[in-house]
Amino acid sequence: MAPCHSTFDFRLYDFQTKNMKLTLKIWRQKNAAAEGKIVEYPIDGIEPDMSFLEMLDILNDELIVKGEDTVAFDHDCREGICGMCSLYINGEAHGPDRLVTTCQLHMRKFKDGDTIFIEPFRAKAFPVIKDLVVDRSSFDRIQQSGGFISVNTSGNTIDANTIPIPKHDADRAFDAATCIGCGACVASCKNSSAMLFVSAKVSQFALLPQGKVEAADRVLNMVAQMDAEGFGNCTNTGACEVECPKGISLENIARMNREYLSASLKG
Amino acid sequence: MAKSALLKSSIAKKVAMALSGLFLVLFLAQHFFINMTSVFSADTFNSISHFMGNNPLVQFVIQPILIVGVIFHFIMGFVLEFKNNSARPISYAKNNGAANSSWASRNMIVSGSVVLAFLLLHFYDFWVPEMVYKYVDVSPLNETRYFHELAEKFESPVRTGLYSLSFLLLSLHLWHGFNSSFQSVGFNNKYSKSLHTLGYAFAIVVPFGFIFIALFHHFNH
C-alpha cells in the first residue's frame, strides 16, 4: 500500500486568528417617514469565523448595554435559503463574497482595521421601514399577479413526476426556481430593475408543461405589476447576475423578453 | 392586452431601444466601409458617395428613416435614464459598481451624450453643407468633389482630435450596446458567446477604423 501523503498546503491559506477591530458605518433611520443618516460605530473583538450577522448581534448587545436603540436588520433562517437577510455591504449586495447571502458571509472576508459601510437595499420600490429593514412586499405583489400555476387539488392531482420533461428544461427550471427573492438584483442594479427576479419567476414555469397553460397571462401580468411598482428599466449591465446569491442567469431575462413579446403579439 | 399597455411597458421600451440601436449599427457598418475606400481610392470613394448622395431611395427614404432612428434612440435613451434614476431616490453612500459591471455598461448615457454632441458637429461639418449644396444653392452635379471635401475637413488638428475622441466614446458605447441589444430582444443561447466576440470586434474595429481614416487624411493632406 502506498504511503499516504498529504497534499494540503497550509501556506495557501490565510488563517486569520486575531480578533478584529472595525469601524462600522451604518444607515440609521428611526422609521419610514424619518430622515436617515450614516452613524459610525467602532467595534472590537470580532472573530474572523463569526458570520456578518453575528457581528451585528454583538454590536446590538453593546448598544443594549449602553441603553441605545439597536440596529434593525432582517434575518431568519441564517443558512442562505429564506431570502430574508439583505444589506448593502461596502457597496455590494450581500457583501464582497460571491454566491452567498449576508447570513453566509463571514468576517474573514474583512481585515483588522477595515471600515465597513452597511446600508439598506435602495430602491423606490423597497422603502425603508427602519434602519436596514426595507419593505420588499412589491415582490410579493408581483408573485401574486401571476407567479403561480392553477392546479386541481381535489384528489385527482397528477403526480408531477409522471409528466415527462426533458432533463435540460427541468434543470433550467430548477435553476430559475432557486431564486429566493432577496432583492439583491434590485439593490445591485444601477436602475433598480427587478427583471432578474421577475424573469426567474417567469422562467421556472415557462420551461415546464404545467406552466404553459397560463404562460401568456403570467408574463404580461407580472411585467405590468413590476412596472407599476416603480422599478427601473433593465439596461443589461449584468450586475444582478454577479451579485445574485443563487447565481440566477441573465438567460432568464432574455427568456422573459421572448415570452413577453410573444404573448403581446398573440394579443 | 391593450396595445397602449404594451407600448408603455418596460420591455417594449427596451426592445425599441435595442432595435433602433441595431439599425444604427448597420448604418455605421456601411458608413465605415464607404469611408474606408477613401484611404485606398479617391475615385471609388467619389463614385460611391455620388451614388449615395443622389439616389432617390437613399436620399428620400433611407436618410429620413435614419434621422428618425437617431433621434428616437437619443430621446428614448434620455427618457429611460431619467426614469431609471428616479427608481432610486436615495443613492448609496458607498457603491462598488466596478465589482459587478463594466464602466461602459454603467455609463451609456455619458458615451451616448458624447456621440450625440459629435453627431451635431458631424452634421454641421458634412450634412448641412451637402444639403445646402444640393437643395439650397442647387449647384451642378460634381462627381469628384466628395474626396476633397472629406480630406479638407481633416486638415484641422482640432477637428481630427475631436473626431478621434468621439470615436473612442463610440467604441465604449458599442462595447456594451451591441451585445446588449441582442439580449434585449431575447437572443441568449449557445451562439451568444460567438456573437459577443463579434460585438467586441465590431466595437474595436469600426471606431478605431474611423480614427485611422481621420488620421490618414490629416497626415496625408
From TrEMBL, chain A:
GO biological process, alphabetically ordered: aerobic respiration; respiratory electron transport chain
Highest rank taxon of the organism: Bacteria
Coiled-coil blocks: none
Database matches in InterPro entries: 2Fe-2S_ferredoxin-like_sf (IPR036010), 2Fe2S_fd_BS (IPR006058), 4Fe4S_Fe-S-bd (IPR017896), Beta-grasp_dom_sf (IPR012675), Helical_ferredxn (IPR009051), SDH/FRD_Iron-Sulfur (IPR050573), Succ_DH/fum_Rdtase_N (IPR025192)
Molecular function via GO: 2 iron, 2 sulfur cluster binding; electron transfer activity
Record-annotated 4Fe-4S ferredoxin-type domain positions: 170-200
Necessary cofactors: [3Fe-4S] cluster; [2Fe-2S] cluster
UniProt family annotation: Belongs to the succinate dehydrogenase/fumarate reductase iron-sulfur protein family.
Protein name as annotated: Succinate dehydrogenase / fumarate reductase iron-sulfur subunit
Originating organism: Flavobacterium xanthum
TrEMBL record, chain B:
Keywords: Membrane, Transmembrane, Transmembrane helix
CDD domains listed in its UniProt record: SQR_TypeB_2_TM
Domain of life (superkingdom): Bacteria
UniProt keyword Mitochondrion present: no
Gene Ontology CC: membrane
TM spans (from-to): 57-82, 103-124, 198-219
Record keyword Coiled coil present: no
The name this protein goes by in its record: Succinate dehydrogenase / fumarate reductase cytochrome b subunit
Taxonomic lineage: Bacteria, Pseudomonadati, Bacteroidota, Flavobacteriia, Flavobacteriales
